[in-house]
């Protein structure tokens, strides 16, 4: 689905507010902050970072998530988001389990610069076919190392289960997390990839039994049973037949208190337009 690690998992945060009173109305489902993924990828307006931040602020977003910038753009872009009062909830990077080093050598320094921010570093694990046991030993070693670094800087590491990656299934990602056995290492629950890979299973026991290790959640409108991304498994929240409201109520019930993401990959047109539509649905769930 994603063309490279730089676009594998793009983000922007979403929560609607048009003034202080409306901001309260915009946070149903336990008051989760919400963010989006890949908002900027297919935006017809191709907004600059500054324009994206202004848009997010105007829409009342709580924060944003992006690729983890490994160069001078890290501090520059953090400043842009800080100026608009946006928190950085999620930054992502790729780990290549069949290579040494397995990740960009600048990653540890970038993580140190994030100290004090409520950031989850999301990792896409690649280098072996899905579920290939050859990846387990290098994965455990790398994730324990990154977990230690995350602990030193007040961050968390979350495995992003992504179709076609070594951890394409959250069920296998959870197996990896148990092997790693590190307090700072957990998983995402990504609805679109769950539906693509494990859609025939019941998500409730998976989330109930592992909620303490679910560090991030992404949702979107989705047509159950399809195997296409755009206009199928990834749509604005006002499209598709998957019951997101039921999912959110279940997450609240089992104690998930983290952010909720809106996946936007492949959604065409003006990002502001489809994000506003999703926000409208999100707000309606509180009414």
What do you see in this structure?
The protein has ten helices and nine strands. It is globular, with a radius of gyration of 18 Å. Strand 6 (156-159), helix 6 (170-180) and strand 7 (185-190) form a beta-alpha-beta unit. Helix 5 crosses helix 6. The chain has one domain (11-284): Divalent-metal-dependent TIM barrel enzymes (TIM Barrel, Alpha-Beta Barrel). A nine-stranded mixed sheet has the order 1-2-9-8-7-6-5-4-3. By secondary structure, it is an alpha/beta fold. It has helices at 20-25, 49-59, 73-83, 107-112, 136-153, 170-180, 191-198, 203-210, 244-254, 271-284, and strands at residues 11-13, 34-37, 63-67, 87-96, 120-126, 156-159, 185-190, 214-219, 260-263.
Attribute tags:
about 290 residues; alpha/beta; TIM Barrel; nine-stranded mixed β-sheet; about 15% strand; globular; disordered N terminus
Short structural description:
By secondary structure, the protein is of the alpha/beta class.
Instruction: Tell me the name of the CATH class.
Output: Alpha Beta
Low-confidence parts, pLDDT < 50 over ≥5 residues?
2-29
**CATH fold label:** TIM Barrel
User: What's the gyration radius in Å?
Assistant: 18 Å
How many beta strands in the DSSP annotation? 9
The major β-sheet equals: 9 strands, mixed
Proportion of strand residues: 15-25%
Helical content stands at 25-40%
CATH architecture field: Alpha-Beta Barrel
- Class from secondary-structure proportions: alpha/beta
Helical segment tally?
A: 10
């Amino acid at each position: 689905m994603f063309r490279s690690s730089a676009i594998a998992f793009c983000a922007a945060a979403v929560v609607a507010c048009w003034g202080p009173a409306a901001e309260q109305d915009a946070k149903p489902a336990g008051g989760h902050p919400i963010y989006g993924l890949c908002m900027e990828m297919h935006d017809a307006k191709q907004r600059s970072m500054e324009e994206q931040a202004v848009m997010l602020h105007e829409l009342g977003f709580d924060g944003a998530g992006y690729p983890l910038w490994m160069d001078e753009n890290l501090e520059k872009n953090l400043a842009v988001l800080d100026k608009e009062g946006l928190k950085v909830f999620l930054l992502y990077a790729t780990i290549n389990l069949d290579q040494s080093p397995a990740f960009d050598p600048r990653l540890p320094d970038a993580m140190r610069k994030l100290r004090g921010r409520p950031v989850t570093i999301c990792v896409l694990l690649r280098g072996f076919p899905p579920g290939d046991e050859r990846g387990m030993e290098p994965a455990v070693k790398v994730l324990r190392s990154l977990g230690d670094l995350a602990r030193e800087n007040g961050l968390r590491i979350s495995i992003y289960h992504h179709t076609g990656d070594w951890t394409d299934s959250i069920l296998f990602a959870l197996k990896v997390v148990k092997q790693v056995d590190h307090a700072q290492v957990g998983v995402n629950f990504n609805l679109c990839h769950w539906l693509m890979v494990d859609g025939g299973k019941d998500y409730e026991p998976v989330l109930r039994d592992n909620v303490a290790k679910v560090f991030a959640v992404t949702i979107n409108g989705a047509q159950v049973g399809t195997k296409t991304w755009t206009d199928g498994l990834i749509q604005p929240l006002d499209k598709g037949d998957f019951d997101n409201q039921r999912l959110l109520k279940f997450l609240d019930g089992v104690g998930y208190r983290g952010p909720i993401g809106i996946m936007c990959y492949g959604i065409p047109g003006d990002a502001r337009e489809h994000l506003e539509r999703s926000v409208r649905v999100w707000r309606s769930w509180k009414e």
